[in-house]
Amino acid sequence: MTLLEDNHPCSQYNYLISVQTGHRKNAGTTANVTVALIGSEGQSDTHHLTDPDKPVFERGALDMFLMATPFPLGEVQNLKLQHDNSGGRPSWYINKVTVQDLQTRQVWYFLCDCWVSSERGDGMTKKTFNAAKNCEVACFRNIFQNRTSTGFRDEHIWVSIVDPPSRSPFTRVQRVSCCMSLLLCTMAINIAFWNIPENEDSPVVFTVGSLQITWQDIMVGAESGLLMFPINILIITIFRSIRPRVVSKSHRNISEETLKQQLVTMPTILKETEKVLFLVSRSQRNKMETTHILESATDLCTALNKIHELIHVMQGEAESDLHWVYCSKFLLAALCHLLMCLEMFAEKKFLISEYKQALDLTNLLVRKTDMVFRSHLAYWLAPLAKRISMRCRIICYLCLIILLLYSPFPVVKKKKKRTTMGCWLPWWCVFLGWFLLLSLSAVSTFFTLLYGFDYGRGKSIKWIMSLGLSLFQSIFILQPLKVIGVAVFFALLLKPVAVEETEEIEQILSEQEDKCRRYSGRDSL
């Protein structure tokens, strides 16, 4: 997963964007892609979907990005995608996009299935997609098509070697090894079957040149395929169910001394303040107009007064929700960073009175925003207080406020490990899988050689024919039937679930939180 570099450090409301590139020829793109989300309660800033460590938007790839916003966007309604038509292959065929709210676990689907290109399709490099309705997402055709496409790439052991899914713990090396073990096991079972007496009365089904394939050959191939299927499926299940071992990434520890060494200038302060005002104005609930470019210290004081007005709007809200909690948290972190920059601002190139006014006003706003954030957080954490008496409600609020005041981390503490979907095995079970695979391959090879030395030309030819029939049955009958059966089962009985619950999400959320703490200079954020 990729933590977007252009996320504002103070933004703490997180969305996971999963982009599925199509499987058509030249479906991947080399262009720079941007995205913006539009919800019922506001819209996000435009973000660049890039990863400095790996290529993105390759053919058939699933790329996942963590986008942070200052406040919840509400019901996500539209998705804006655009690219700059750069690189040698700018044309991009996008299959679908999934947006997941990591706080409420709500998921929105955007069924694109089109070219974003100036040369193909409708010739547009900028498109807006509407969120799919529930009936569109849950229809039989959509689920069956998605499950069949992913099933052949992931669950069909032979086909998955050519084009495995990008985000699967079952690696290509493991898939090739399982196919080799499957082949050796099939050879051993087939050669063991031909040690039984040959049925001379078995009818000939069809003839290929000088070779005759009897009904006994077909039965031996079918029985061998059915016998080796559960043996090998155990090893495949072990490899597929192993939890990926997440290695902690090295963070860039930016200490306070390093920040002080950085040059803090008035243009940088004005630019960051302007960015904060622009982000909070993206929500209609904040009742703030889009600000103009800040050019001087006087404009800075005017911008701080507008933030002061927004704080008064927050104070006037009798009831709290996620919007006011995260919006006040965003403002608190941004104002703490601004205060830290003003205190480190050594070259006071504007009037002393204006500097002192900006510094005093920022100090006041930090204190007020801290109180507003704690107040809204207390209301949000006590929804059950509405059901009890007024006296008990006041006592609960007071206890919560006291607890928050003396708590070193006055935020909603997340569990270290969320409940994961499905059954996962610990990472060290990969050694168990390799042990079973190598043991099965060695035993199969031993018995194949043991029986093979005693067979003559006739039995060897029949053995090769039954081996080919077993492989044909596995590749073209058993595996496709398994994939199609699972797809039909999901399409008829189960709803599509796209909720990601992995340790990688916890790690990337922790990176965003650390980024906010370093930026604001406060451990309590």
What's this entry about, in short?
By secondary structure, this protein is of the alpha+beta class.
Structure description:
This protein has 525 residues and is α+β, with helices and mostly antiparallel strands. The chain has three domains: 2-138 and 496-515, Lipoxygenase-1, CATH 2.60.60.20; 160-243 and 423-492, no CATH class; 256-417, no CATH class. Helices cover 49% and strands 14% of the residues. It contains 13 helices and twelve strands. It has helices spanning 134-137, 140-154, 172-193, 215-240, 256-261, 266-280, 297-315, 322-344, 352-381, 390-406, 429-452, 457-492, 503-520; strands at 2-3, 13-21, 33-39, 42-43, 47-48, 62-69, 76-83, 92-101, 107-116, 126-130, 204-208, 211-214. It has a five-stranded mixed sheet with strand order 1-6-2-8-9, with helices on one face. Strands 3, 4, 5, 7 and 10 form a five-stranded antiparallel sheet that branches. Strand 8 and strand 9 (107-116) form a beta hairpin. Helix 9 packs across helix 10. It is elongated.
